[in-house]
Amino acid sequence: MALKDLAIWNKKSGDVGEIDRFFDDFFSDFGRFSSSLFSGERFRSFSPKIDISDSESSVDINAELPGMDEKDVQVSLKEDILTIKGEKKNSNEKKEKDYYRVERSFGSFERSIRIPKEINADKIKASFKNGVLSISLPKSEKAKEKIRQIEVKAS
């Protein structure tokens, strides 16, 4: 079969069904992405960027939550799973002489992070400033004792 035989525009002019199938196949190839892209679902939820650092005394987590306030965020710890939940709501209304515009956006998220069990749960602190959630999870004395330095030798 030659390449020109595969091109839909070389088919007989009465075969419009081939063109329909071509477009159906093209958009179905997007799979899950196409339905979220064309229906607007990608604007309904988001996943914040999270940085996790581990030091001798604590595990520190920073989550970027632009456009949110501390009242929009919940932090919980269940066993060794730290969960950050939030909901973002925004409404922008503008009235001018010639037009009226209202834009609304909203989204919710939930991120769960497995943390070491050697955390002192009673001393966890969370703060929110300029769209960044900072969580400090102090390590227990038991966890601090487990840290040992290992000598690295050249071979």
Order of helices and strands: HHHEEEEEEEH
Anisotropy-based shape: elongated
Strand content: 35-45%
Task: List low-confidence stretches.
Answer: 8-14, 29-44
Tally of DSSP β-strands: 7
Number of domains: 2
Major sheet details: 4 strands, antiparallel
Q: How many distinct helices?
A: 4
CATH fold-level name of the largest domain:
Immunoglobulin-like
CATH domain class name of the largest domain: Mainly Beta
User: What is the SS-derived class?
Assistant: alpha+beta
The Cα radius of gyration reads 26 Å
CATH architecture field of the largest domain: Sandwich
Please explain how this structure is put together:
The chain is 20% helix and 39% strand. A hairpin with a 4-residue loop joins strand 4 and strand 5. The chain folds into two domains: 15-44, no CATH class; 46-146, Sandwich (Immunoglobulin-like). The chain has a four-stranded antiparallel sheet with strand order 1-2-7-6, with no helix packed on it. A three-stranded antiparallel sheet has the order 3-4-5, with no helix packed on it. The longest helix has 13 residues, at 16-28. With 155 residues, the protein is α+β, with helices and mostly antiparallel strands.
List the helices and strands and how they pair.
Elements: H1 3-6, H2 16-28, H3 32-39, E1 50-54, E2 58-64, E3 73-78, E4 81-95, E5 100-114, E6 125-129, E7 132-138, H4 141-146
Antiparallel strand pairs: 1-2, 2-7, 3-4, 4-5, 6-7
Short structural summary:
The chain has 155 residues and is an alpha+beta fold. Helices cover 20% and strands 39% of the residues.
